[in-house]
Amino acid sequence: MSFIKYSFLTLVILLVSIAPFVQADEPDPNYWRLDEIQAQFDIWEAEYPDIFHPSVLGQTGNRLEIPMVTICNQEPGSNDDPRMLFHGALHTNEANGTTAIMASLEMLLTGYGVDPKMTARVDSLEVTYVPILNVDSHLYSFSGGVNWFDWRKTMRDNNSNGQPDFPDDGVDLNRNWDWNWDAYENDQPADLKYKGPYPFSEPEIMAVRDWVLRERPVVVVDYHSPVTISWRKYIFWPWMDTAGGGMGPDHNVSDDVAELWAAATIDENGNQYNEIYAYSTLPKEQNWIYANTGILSFIMEISDHCWWSGAMVDTIGTRVARGGNALLDRVVDGPGLRGVVTDASTGEPLVAEVKIDQMHQDTVGPRLTEENHGAYHRLTRSGTYTVTASCDGYESQTQSVSVSNSWETLDFALESPLSSVAPGRDLSWLRTGNSNGDVRLEVPAGLPAATVELFDLRGHRVGVLGENMASGQAYDLQFPNRLAGGVYLVRVRAGQQEQTQRVVFVP
Ligand SMILES: [Zn+2]
């Protein structure tokens, strides 16, 4: 008797647990569809015009627009507030990220001016949300296309037959980045993790890449919801460098960030999420962004599986959005280093590299300022740091700074060697020969003895070509053989007069 009871109980549990997996004709209506998102954006724009700034990230393979919105209390880009990017549905059947983004937007908008924490998030940050990155195949799946349940790739027509075929068509947007491209051998179009015909073949990720390179956000979040169930409820931080570099230069910080974010994200059973480093191997967004910019790029795997039904869809979104608030607060509060890099004589912003010695590896970065304000932001732990700003054509500058428990501001005003060129310069002093760096100097008569120095484009002096060169004489100057090929600045000084000229050196 007890055996029968037990079997019955098992059967009930089985039925309950497989219920969400039963395949419907199209996604549950609790998931956001593109047209519903656009209609909701219109409503929010009318209701919150000062903080809701909709725009377009870029175009899809089918030339449709990818909607996005930036939440901030001024025109986006008008100040140097830290930027953040959240996007969902890079993989079409991982729409839980879309739900989380829509829940985040609702919390920020309705909480602004009401809840001091929500207000601080909006006032201190520029947070950009892209609810659906893979718009083309979202439309396919949400119209119940064949195999919509499993569609994850783009709609690229790999077999050129003019119609969508599963699994033959499409490219995996998280294998199409130009990172470890050759090492990742999956070039079979029918594979669900097909890398595509060439790196960045898909315009959706070119749009993400270009936005990141322009805006230089502090953090990028790519919401997934795993096909691989063992990685459910995980936040992956950058990174474990499998090419032998070990943990990346930001590993303490990104571990801290992921830890507090995971602790604030609660699953349906009341348990916290987990966090772990990501491996650097695959041609993924997270790896490309971190390797090329040093920006902290995270993946969150939201749930046990792709598609849920009913109220569960919304509760996942709300719980993940609450966790996301902890991440926003880490960027609102610091600790971190921020500042601007400008031209010392004009005050114009510079696109410069800002290097923190204690958080640097040559395999990651360079960390560049964004172009509109010359601004940089770097999350750190508290501590003392040595920071160098450098920019082509300027003298590099190094400063030491202590960061406590909030943002510390450290600005740089860089001097250009070219800005000190004296009036009355005589261009006949220097003659460059062929492009192997031959320089002939004719020191005009009546001047003091001349010195000729060589600088790289960052303003570092890399050599002295001659000293005490007498007026009225001609000299043939040799570049040091140890120099790498490239463009250099030759500066000649004689008393108050000076002249600087670019020279191409071919060793
Ligand atoms: Zn995914």
Low-confidence stretches: 1-20, 419-427
> What is the name of the CATH class of the largest domain?
Alpha Beta
- From the structure provided, what is the oligomeric state, counting identical versus distinct chains? single chain
**Distinct small molecules:** zinc ion
Counted beta strands: 23
Strand content: 25-35%
CATH architecture of the largest domain: 3-Layer(aba) Sandwich
End-to-end Cα distance, whole Å, is 90 Å
Tally of DSSP helical segments: 9
Helix content: 10-25%
Mean pLDDT: 90
Compute the number of structural domains: 3
In short:
By secondary structure, this protein is an alpha/beta fold. The protein has 9 helices and 23 strands. It folds into 3 domains: 22-333, Aminopeptidase; 336-415, Immunoglobulin-like, CATH 2.60.40.1120; 422-505, Sandwich (Immunoglobulin-like).
Describe this protein's structure.
The chain has 507 residues and is of the alpha/beta class. The protein has three domains: 22-333, Aminopeptidase; 336-415, Immunoglobulin-like; 422-505, Immunoglobulin-like (Sandwich). 24% of the residues lie in helices and 27% in strands. The chain is built from nine helices and 23 strands. Helix 3 (96-111) packs across helix 4, helix 4 (116-124) crosses helix 9 (311-333) and helix 7 (251-263) crosses helix 9. The chain starts with a helix and ends with a strand. The model is unreliable at 1-20 and 419-427 (pLDDT under 50). Zinc ion binds next to loops.
